[in-house]
Each structure stands twice: as C-alpha cells, then as structure tokens.
Amino acid sequence: MELSREGGDGNTEQPHAIADDVASNHVEEERGEIHLPENEGDTVGNGKTDSKRYGNSDSNVDHEREVNDRSSDIINSADSQKANGTVQELIQQPHSQLPKPEAPPGVNDTCSPPNLSPKMERSVSAPDNFDMPAIGKFIREKSNSFSLAITKRLSSLREGRNNDEDEEAILKPASNVMEFNLVGLKVIKSLKELGKIELKGRISFFSRSNCRDSTAVRSFFRGKNLNFVEINIDVYPTREKELIERTGSGTVPQIFFNEKLIGGLVALNSLRNSGMLEKKMEEMLGIKCPDDAPAPPVYGFDDDEAEESLDEMVAIVRVLRQRLPIQDRLMKMKIVKNCFTGADLVEVLIHHVDCGRKKAIEIGKQLARKHFIHHVFGENEFEDGNHCYRFLEHEPFIPKCHNFRGSVNDSEPKNAATVSQRLTRIMSAILESYASDDRRHLDYVGIRNSEELRRYINLMQDLQRMNLLTLTADEKLAFFLNLHNTMAIHAVIRIGHPGGMIDRRAFFDDFMYVVGGYPYSLSTIRNGILRSNKRAPFSLTKPFSGGDKRLELAFPKVNLLIHFALCNATKSSPVVKFFTAQGVASELRYAAREFFQRDDGMHVDLAKRTVYLSRVIKWYSADFGQEKEIPKWIINYLDATKAGLLTHLLNDGGPINIVYQNFDWSLNS
C-alpha cells in the first residue's frame, strides 16, 4: 500500500514520521511504502481504522482507551490543515516496556515541505546506525542509578547524625561523660552541666572513715561535679576540736557552704527534695569564701600534736651506741656483722650508768624486750658473757624494710590496738578517695601523691618496736589482715607490681616492714602468721624456723576465710578490704560470699557437670583438705542461684568435675 498526499499543485508530500524497531511491530522502509504486520489488522487509510483489534470500529474514544491500557506512551501525529490539501493522521504505538521515542536533532515537529519526495528519509544530522531511544534509555538508567546512590548516602549520613544525637540525648540525663571511640584511641570527655552555677565560694564537710552518711554526701557532690573539701578527722585528728566548736557536737558529716553550717545528710536531702538546694548554693556560694570558713587541710605538714614522749631507756641506748665496740665477729663458722658481746654491754653500763653488774644485766634484758637490741641468732633474751648482740638498726633485714627511715623510732611504743585502729581508718580513707565503688580498681598514682599515704607511712614507724603480744586473738587477726593489704598497696607504689615469676619473689618475700622488732613480708604474714607457719605454694621450707620469736604470734589453726580477704593487688585476688577487731568474724564471712559471687571466684556448668573454682584454692589445697569436700564447704558462702546449681549437682549422685581457673596477675588498677 502506498501512502501519499496530493498537494494543490499536484506534487507529492512526505508525512513527518519516525520508524522504530519495536518488539513485534516492524516498520520497513522500502520504496516509499509502509507495511504493517498482518497480525495487527490495522489499516490506515481513508481516515478509517479496522476493528479486528479494538472491537469497536465506530468509536475513536474506545480505540484510544484500549491503546492507553496497552502502553503508557502514545505518539500522535498532529493534524495539519492547509488551504489546498489535507494531511492524513498516522498513529504508531510502541511497546509498553520501551521508552517513548524522541526525535533526533534536525527533525521538526511539523510536516515536511510539500516538495519532498515520497520516500521517507532520516535527518542528515544523524548517522544511519544511530539508535537514539537506546542511548536515551542508557543515559536515563545511569543517571537514575547515580542519583539513587547519592540519595542513599546522604540519607545514611543524616540518619547516622540523628542516631548520634539520640544517643547523646539518652546519655546526658544519666551521666555527664560522653565517650568517643576513635581508631586506636578512646577519648573520654567530661561534659559541663547545663545551667551549672558558677561557685565562687567553697563547699566543705567534716567526715570519718567507714561512715555511711559521709560516703553518701561525698557521692552526691561527686555526682553533681561539685568541687568540695573533705576534712576526715580520722586522717586529721586535731580538726575534731574545730568540728565540736563549730557544730556543738562531734557527729559527722557536717556540711558548710563557706562559713555557714548547713547540717548533715538529712539537711542536704531536705534541700534537694524541696528544690531549694540550687537557690541556697547560689545565695551562699556566689561570693568569695571568707577567712573564717573551715580551712582546707594543709598537705605535707603533720598536725601540731603534743610532742611524743621518748622511751625511758633512750638515754641509756644513746650512751651504748657511742661506747660499745661494734664490729664484725666470727661465730659458728659465720661472720656476724655489726655486733657486740653481752659482756661489753655490761661493762659499759657499769662504768657510764653507775650501776652494779646485776643491775646492768637487768637493763640489758629490758633493752631486748623493747627491741632495741637482739641476739644475733635469736637464742636468748640477754645474758652476760660472749653471746653476741646487735642493735635493731644494724639487723641485716633493715635495708629491705620500707617503714624504717634511717633510724629507730625511739619514742615510747604505742598501744598495738590503738595503732591498728588508726591504720584501718587511714587506709579506709584512701580507699574511699582512690578506689572504685566495687573496690576492684585502685588509682595508684593518686594514692602515691596523697596526703593520706604520707601520714600512713609516718604511722608505720610506730610499728617498729610495738608489742604485738598485747593483742587479743580478734585484734591480732584484724591487724595482720589489714597489714597485709596495706603492704600490698605500698609495694606496688614503691617497687611496682610483679610482671613474672622472678619478680614475684621481690614482691612477696623481699618487700618488708619491721614490726615488733622483726621483719614481716607478705609471704610471712600469710604463711607464717595466718596459716600457722605452713609452707608457701611451691616452697620447700617453712617461713619460721624452730627458734623464731615470731612463732609466738602464729595462729594455732588456719581460718580458711583468710584466703578471700587477702589482696595481692591483682585482678583475680579478692578486693581490698580492711577489718575491725569487733566484727572481723562476720566481715570475713561477707568477704568470702562477695568473692564467690564473682565468676572468676566460682561458677557452675550444669551441662558439663563442672564446678569452676579460683586457683587460690588449688594453691592452698593443704588448708582446704580433700577436693571432693570443697564444694560442700563452699555452698555455705554462695548466693541462692549458685547454691541451687551446686546443690543439684551434689544431690543427683553423679560425678562432679572441679576445674581451677587461670589466675589473672595483672594489676588491679
């Protein structure tokens, strides 16, 4: 079929049309003829459309509705009327899944001039093999993919920023600390509270060690990020008089805003609950602190206490130190350094103290009982003759004793129970200031630079000649438990924590205090005193020999709970605790329960029928007895959950496996 239009001048015009290769519709260009596939059944001519496909030949509206259902894009040739001719309409429908064809550059939307040949030709501006719809589709797909990728990236960044803001909003009410995790670095930044009052004055309060109300006040001020001055009257005993003068009583805590007394914990809670605390702080602390407010403790200086009285034997000791012939001697095939004989001491006393020989011997015995002098082999107290003795400061163990400062403390020895109580209070104050809430982590740098440690070291000099035999059983138990734990902290500060097996000897055996005239290390306290002079793990000898004077202080029976109260500054050891003579028995039971609540202390695996225990129990198995009896003993110190699991294993009659966990020797800092 030939489609043509006759113009008024008899010339043939070519209609404006673009043929596309579309799925099942093939338009062939050949000698000016357009052939439609037979299966379409559409004939264009005389302004009519065949009805085989659309089912309604009389209505062009129905025809267009069916076409729209098949394809979303319709190409309609615009009807154009001229004065002397008509242009017939040509409608070609592309496949519904293909993009709408677009005219290439150079082709106008209007019909060609009437003088063109009947043959349909492409624009000369496009090459013959140029497939414009495919190129357009490719460009659109790539641009859409690129736009989608950019949109997703921007959306993810926006969501990430919103999530961070949400997390920050959640963290702010609960804490004033935000954590930023960077590659290889963790930065912790303290955030300032919104609306925080700028304080020009000073908050101070009086406290005591191991006081629950004082701990609550301290925790409150820390939680509010408020600077405060704590005056612990156990650390600064002379400030107790000032406390009584300002408040009329010695009860603590007592809080001061500048020079004005607020009261104790009850008064603080009342202000906080009524919402008046901030207003009160703004009124009282908005000005500079006056001079009559409680003064901060002065660090580096001791209190102006009454001068300690010297021992009544000091005058005689000073004469002996100057007059005795001190030299190295050979005794029992050994060279004994810095010693003198009993006869020499008696002669000096007779000539310089103006006394008889019998009186001189009695004075020598008094000097030995007060630990000014000792027999070089510990064989006797004091006798006249060729027995050799030496002064305490000349003992070979003195260089290893870290509570000895060049000379012996010549003051009158203090009561052992009083010194023990003072020791407990100072160390409790250190823990309250420099330990975590669970006491499993200590700030050793802060402790090393603290005034509390300086005063503790001064107090330790009182141990040099103290008479420990005056302590009761409970006082002695509490004293040596506390002494062990304080020495462990001091050893970390002075010599560092052991990193290997070789270094542990210096830590446990070589770091010493001179107490009551004799040396004590961490090992001798644990194995010699508390464990009734038993061999340490992996050791072949006992701490004390048969004639050792320290055996008088050793406990006759081992209390198994001590193993859960002695801290050696490692993560797997029990937490640091200090005990009182009045409640040491109950405090030991609590320490054991607290230790077994930890997974590294004890836990049960029902599936494997295994009980996992601390390796401490393995090391000191000589104290705990047969392994099969250990679970029955432990069950008395477990919480309900672990006790139930262990009871189930013990009562079902099956075998129980006991595994000892690895010990973490890293520092508990």
Architecture overview:
The protein is of the alpha+beta class and 669 residues long. The protein has 20 helices and 21 strands. The strands form 8 sheets. It has a 4-stranded mixed beta sheet with strand order 10-9-11-12, with helices on both faces. Helix 8 crosses helix 9.
Q: Kindly report how far apart the N and C termini lie.
A: 99 Å
Number of strands: 21
Largest sheet entry: 4 strands, mixed
Structural class comes to alpha+beta
Query: Hey, roughly how much beta strand do the residues contain?
Result: 5-15%
Helix fraction by DSSP (H/I, runs of at least 4)? 25-40%
Alpha carbon gyration radius: 49 Å
Order of strands, main sheet, comes to 10-9-11-12
Uncertain stretches: 1-65, 67-92, 107-131, 165-177, 191-195
Gross morphology: globular
* Mean pLDDT score: 78
Tally the helices: 20
Protein name: Glutaredoxin-related
Organism: Abeliophyllum distichum
InterPro entries: DEP_dom, DUF547, Glutaredoxin, Thioredoxin-like_sf, WH-like_DNA-bd_sf, WH_DNA-bd_sf
Summarize the structure.
The protein has 669 residues and is an alpha+beta fold.
SSE blueprint:
Blueprint: E1 5-6, E2 12-13, E3 28-30, E4 33-35, H1 60-70, E5 81-82, E6 85-86, H2 132-174, E7 177-182, E8 185-190, E9 203-207, H3 212-223, E10 228-232, H4 239-247, E11 254-257, E12 260-263, H5 265-274, H6 277-285, H7 314-323, E13 327-331, E14 334-341, H8 342-352, H9 357-369, E15 373-375, E16 388-391, H10 416-434, H11 444-448, H12 451-460, H13 473-495, H14 501-510, E17 512-515, E18 518-521, H15 522-530, H16 584-597, E19 602-605, E20 610-613, H17 615-619, H18 621-624, H19 630-634, H20 640-651, E21 657-660
Parallel strand pairs: 9-10, 20-21
Antiparallel strand pairs: 1-2, 3-4, 5-6, 7-8, 9-11, 11-12, 13-14, 14-16, 15-16, 17-18, 19-20
InterPro entries: DEP_dom, DUF547, Glutaredoxin, Thioredoxin-like_sf, WH-like_DNA-bd_sf, WH_DNA-bd_sf
Protein name: Glutaredoxin-related
Pfam families: DEP, DUF547, Glutaredoxin
